[in-house]
Fold this sequence. Notes:
Helix content: 40-55%
Strand order of the largest sheet: 1-2-4-3
Structural class: alpha+beta
Largest sheet: 4 strands, mixed
Number of helices: 10
Shape: globular
Strand content: 5-15%
Number of strands: 6
Mean pLDDT: 88
Distance between the termini: 52 Å
Low-confidence stretches: none
Order of helices and strands: HEHEHHHEEHEEHHHH
Amino acid sequence: MTVTVDQDFRSATNLLLDHGIPLIVWGDQVLKSHGYPVVTSVYDFIIPDSQLDHASTILRNAGFPTVEPNLALKCAGIFGKAGYLHVSVYDRKRWPIRLHLLPESLVHLSIHDTESVPSPFDQTRTLYRPKLPEHCVSLLRCLEDYPLRSRDRARPLCYLTVLFAVGVFKEQQFDKLWIPEEELEPEAEFQARRFAAVREIQSWKLAEKDESYRSKLVDLLFSNSSDCSVRP
């Protein structure tokens, strides 16, 4: 019987769960769950720091070898290079799909910031996904970790921008090519949506330790800078 990559990754993730290692989905998987169209070539999973090395050892011993990050991941900075990248031996493509294990401390997330969701490989098993408010705050913390213009800021800035669009602005028209000269939404309607987004952020229930980030998130909604004004 031919084993598919999805079937092999189901075995990998279930093996980690069977060893009591919780998995928090991150990256493209989260964006896809919010309705953003994305092709997942790297499955990012957040692992408690104390279990990261052990998790990678379990996968290697089970026949999931580690690989070095390719050029695209290296260009993503620390979020593409940190942790461990594993592949399926059944994936013979030049650029195989990767299973990426990252430490919790890198992304400022823990299981307390998540909700339960089915595994993308096995609907009978439970993984964890960051809640929208906590995820936005964690990405803002990631931006503060690195200086402006650092490539290490690229991935969290991208994810935060998309989460604003799909999770806060409730944008759904991703199947159309955006042409500035043909912008259809009147400015007044856009501003109304932006203020509605502000009201949503203001309604979020944040932990006391995250409360100071509420105003920073609101400020970002009104920022015109593509580099983001959040400074370390």
